[in-house]
Design goal:
The chain has 87 residues and is of the alpha+beta class. It has one domain: Ribosomal Protein S5, domain 2. 37% of the residues lie in helices and 28% in strands. The chain contains two helices and four strands. Strands 1-2-4-3 form a four-stranded mixed beta sheet, with helices on one face. A hairpin with a 6-residue loop joins strand 1 and strand 2.
């Protein structure tokens, strides 16, 4: 799956997150979270799982998390990928 344009999904409200995706030469993931110390490893695992499931091998993915649960992380990433015209 290739990301062809910039896209955003989500909000900055509590228990949600913003996902920014854009084209890049390699895969790079940046995570900023209010709960990174407690749940950073779980957030990273969920991001990796969703990207692998969608076949994303290149692109810049940035998450700004405010305590979102795993299903919200998955939904926001998939929405951003769809908006980015990932094919």
């Amino acid at each position: 799956m290739e990301i062809v344009k910039k896209a955003v999904a989500g909000t900055m409200q509590s228990s949600d997150l913003m996902v920014f995706v854009e084209p890049a030469d390699k895969l790079k993931v940046e995570i900023e979270s209010t709960v990174i110390k407690q749940f950073g490893h779980l957030i990273e695992a969920k991001v990796d799982e969703v990207l692998a499931k969608n076949g994303v091998t290149v692109g810049f993915i940035r998450l700004t998390d405010r305590g979102a649960l795993d299903y919200a992380i998955e939904a926001r990433i998939e929405t951003a990928l769809a908006r980015a015209g990932a094919v």
